[in-house]
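Re: the request from the purification team.
They wanted to know what the chain is likely to look like in 3D before they choose a buffer screen. I agreed to run a prediction and write the result into the notebook, where they can find it.
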Amino acid sequence: MSKKTVFITGGAGFIGLHVIPLLLEKDYRIRIFDNMSRGDRGRVNELVATGNVELVEQDVRYGGAVHNAMKGCSHVIHFATVSINKSQADPYESIDINMVGNNNVFAAAADHGVERLVFASSASVYGDPKKLPMHEDDELNPLTPYCISKRAGEDLLGFYQRSKGLSWMALRFFNVYGPGQKIEAYYTSVINTFIQRLRSGQPPIIDGKGEQSMDFIHVTDLAKGVVAALESEQDNMPVNIGTGVDTSIAQLTKILIQAVGTDVEPIFNPRDVLVSRRAADITRAREVLGWEPQITVEQGMNELVKNQAR
């Protein structure tokens, strides 16, 4: 029996490169579809050398390219996106890649009759939450072109489900961090920036009072959630992928100061912050995917600091 092939847009990026090894362990073949503008070419070349991974260097904005490259694939994971901060600086590119790209990938998946499509949605679809933890059925209030495109992506999946029977899962990623992440990643760049400052003996600078919080999910745990969604018996719903723990920026700073082993006090910079607090309700992830996170924030941050020291 021929191996099943997973088509992964943006597969050469941070999260994709953590998901692919898990899929290879499960004996899938992989077709990475990536324009390589931010991809890790060295790592992709290593994966291609295994014989079970191929790279199609193309852009999700071109529907014909997406459709042709997806031929023969049984599953789709759609990661390709423009980051949240870039979407505010350049809404045109964001709408082009995130909206047109979403539609190209979803339409092709529906036309090819794939078994399952997993979409990287985002916790940012909730906007500033009215209550914690944030549940999938809560009101959505996306605030930027990026967040709006993620919500629209979920709605588009519903359209292709109704019109063509597409089977999908939309994973609302919370604040992903871990080894291999670029320092400019929007929400979690705070981790890398704090570590860099601490290593050079400088105090971290915290916006506001440091009461704003995030739900930091380690990329290793998140990757397992993606694979679980690809193979879950249930489908056609959004699922939060987080830890359920809200870690304030002030707490994060303490954890990192301890992990780096330095003795400084943070500086507080008075300014407004966009989203005040975040924590995922992960009941659905447990019940539907049989998934829950294993890595605590303390463990993950300590490991990140050790890896960066190498």
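For the purification team: The longest strand covers residues 116-122.
Please add any questions underneath this entry.
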